[in-house]
Design a protein that fits this description.
Elements (H helix, E strand, L loop, with lengths): L3 E12 L2 E12 L3 E5 L6 H8 L7 E6 L2 E2 L8 H6 L1 E5 L10 H11 L5 H14 L15 H13 L5 E5 L7 H16 L3 E5 L3 H6 L3 E6 L2 E5 L5
The structure holds adenosine-5'-triphosphate.
Length: about 230
């Protein structure tokens, strides 16, 4: 049986003193592709932030890629983030340097030192997202879809056990969204676990997978109807 990459038991999520989500119970297993849907303000980003240690887990129990979220200390967060790949809606690339140097910056910050090994790893992740020839480009020289592919490549640098993608296609047109989604699907086929928050129901219909919904302070699995 595949191991749990993420497990939450009776978790409640707060923003300041406001209860956002309550009684969350879920398991994500190695190799799963899971969507998290829900309307604006339903708590998707708060949920994701709890998973990558940006919001402390105040109530309930949670483990993610071997870390106990309840016992997570400030000092543990960089180590947790090394086992996660995080992809945001707005890409969050550093605008003052080219793609190679964006990726090199992350490698250095996570302890890599050998220049040859770094160059090799950068080439590997750029190849995975079909951007091998774009390493010398600056973010402003790339389309939104290309920037998101670079952000996905960046998330893969340290071989994460789980990728958390928060609205990764939120700034992209429908066709580009499908292209980015194909990249995520390919990464998932190669064995990586992905949790993706999205508004994009067209993508979910095109690429059906386990779907969790945030609604009325709860998170529950929804069964997709065939259309
Ligand atoms: N830093 C914060 N301080 C206080 N309240 C917040 C903060 N961030 C979010 N909230 C509140 O928490 C609730 C959930 O917000 P969240 O961003 O998690 O929703 P979401 O489902 O991700 O929405 P969207 O799809 O618009 O990104 C909202 O009511 C929001 O106003």
């Amino acid at each position: 049986m595949a191991e749990n990459i993420l497990q939450l038991k009776e978790v409640a999520i707060f923003q300041k003193e406001n209860l956002i989500l309550n009684e969350i119970n879920l398991e994500v297993k190695a190799g799963d592709f899971v969507y998290l849907i829900g309307k604006t303000g339903s708590g998707k980003s708060s949920f994701m932030k709890t998973l990558y240690g940006d919001l402390p887990l105040q109530e309930g129990e949670g483990s993610i890629v071997g870390f106990d979220l309840k016992k997570l200390k400030e000092n543990d967060i960089p180590f947790l983030r090394r086992k996660l790949g995080i992809v945001f809606q707005d890409f969050k690339l550093l605008l003052d340097r080219n793609v190679n140097n964006n990726l090199r910056f992350v490698l250095r910050a996570t302890g890599w030192k050998d220049e040859n090994k770094m160059a090799k790893r950068i080439e590997e992740v750029l190849t995975k997202v079909d951007m091998k020839t774009k390493g010398f480009k600056f973010p402003h020289e790339l389309s939104g879809g290309e920037q998101q592919r670079i952000a996905i490549a960046r998330s893969l640098l340290n071989d994460p056990e789980l990728i958390l993608a928060d609205e990764p296609t939120g700034n992209l047109d429908p066709q580009t969204s499908v292209e980015v989604m194909k990249v995520l699907q390919e990464i998932n086929k190669n064995g990586r676990t992905i949790l993706m928050a999205t508004h994009d129901y067209a993508l979910i219909l095109k690429y059906p997978s386990k779907t969790l919904k945030c609604d009325g302070n709860k998170v529950f699995e929804v069964i997709q109807k065939a259309v």
